[in-house]
Structures are given as structure tokens and as C-alpha cells.
Predict the structure.
Amino acid sequence: MKTRQVSCYNCHSDRSRLYDTENGFNLVKCLDCGLLYVNPRPLDQEIDQASQTGEHRGDTRLNTTGSFSEPSVDKYLTILRAFYPVPPDKSDLSWLDIGAGHGEFLQAIQQFLGPGLSATGLEPNANKRASAARRGLEIDYFDLDEHEKSYDFVSLLNVFSHLPDPVDALTRWKRLVKVGGELLLETGDSAGLERHDHHRPYYLPDHLSFASEEIVVGILERVGFRVLDIRKYRSPAYPVLTPLNLFRQLVKLVRPDRQASFRFFPKHANTDMWIRAQRIA
Ligand SMILES: [Zn+2]
């Protein structure tokens, strides 16, 4: 696979040190801002193709398509209720979910906001779109750069880490959010962790970077958003120790396509970061 050297997308520094390696890729730490990023990384064309197929090449092939997760819908509903104790009561709300996956979040916002909501899901992976369609959820794939519409809400869940340059993407996609409208962004808050405390596997090169609260807030403010609220939840990499979860992880041990995790008591569990931000300019 062809790769290329890149500098830090957050601060443009070229100064970095090796943080860890996985699947034939180096994860480096920016010496100036602390961002963790894959360097050298696959060419943009390769990244684009992998996002459409879910197939990521490396020492081993990684398929990240997965399947619809009912518990995710419940988790999303809990988070939506925490962020919006009083649900927005506009009668014709529009919401765009970028990276809609199998449609779990789309289902959660439809349940949360009711029939007045006009929800659009965008997902590059054709297998995930088909899986959503089987559940009656309509998810499309279109070119965001040519998309004319703007929305009251745009969500970007578990997308940030997959983007080659999130600063560039957020700058281009900002116009999809109406002025005064909101962005709901979810990503990991793990760049500040020591290597032995970081969750593994990293899933390189599906994940291309790991940021922190400071880095993501800084980017959002530079791009033209005001941060309204930040909440952190237990990372899915760390299951809560219950008999059922223990059983589930044991089942994963014998499935080559699943990665079991027995890290029930990590030092830093709440690295699943959610940020609610408003477009101000
Ligand atoms: Zn940097």
C-alpha cells in the first residue's frame, strides 16, 4: 500500500515521536500539541475507498462493517436526554447525521424528537446502508461538498478519528449547519494518555488520529463554533464487569472477526467525549 508523510493537522508541526505501532502503521505523538496521528498514512484515495467498503489494509485485513447495535440506540437516547433535558420544540427540525453507520443514531433521534423531525443519514459504507434499509431506515450517500442544504442539527459521531484532516473537513462542512444551529460531535479524548493507559487495539489505519478535549475544542472555536456543553462517557473499549459482559467477551475470544476486551477496570474509563457546539459565524 502506498503511504505518505504528513504533518500534524492541528498545529502543522512536523516534530513528533513514535507512540506505538499496530498493523504495520506508526502512531506518532505531536511534540507541539500532543495529537496522536498515523504517520505515514495511506493515500487519501485509499482512505476514501476503505470508508466505502469497510476493508482496511495493513499487515492484517480489518473489516469494520459490524452490525446494527440495539444497545447503542438506548445509549444514544440517554445521551440525547442529558444534552437536551427539554427537547428542541421546533415543528420542522432538520438533522443530518454524517457517518450514520447502521442507523442507530438516526433511530434514536427519530424516537427522541418525534414525527416533526426530518432526518437525513449519510453513510459511505454500502453494507451498512443496506443493513439500515432492512430496518426501514433510509440512509444515503452523497458528496457533502456539493450538498446545498443546511440543517438545524448536524451530528458527527465516531467520524473525527477516521478523517485524514478533521480541520479541513469541519471547515468545509460548517456551512451544512445553519447559523445558530448545532453540531453534535463525538470522538475519543485519549491523546493525553500514557501509552500503557490507552485503549487497544487502535484499529489503525481505520482510525487515523486520536485527539483530546483541548484539541477538539480549539479546532471547533477556530472553525466558527461555540462549545455549549461537553459530556464524557465510558468508552465502549471498556465493558462494565457483569456476568453477561464477561460471557460476551468470552464468546468474542472464539470469533476471529471480533476483538474481546477484558479491561474492566481501566485507569481512564470515560474517554468517550461528546461535544455540543453552536455555529456562530
Ligand atoms: Zn500538533
The chain has a mean pLDDT of 92. The domain at 3-279 is CATH 3.40.50.150 (Rossmann fold). The first strand starts at residue 3 and ends at 4. Residues 8, 10-11, 13, 30, 32-33, 35 surround zinc ion (CB under 6 Å).
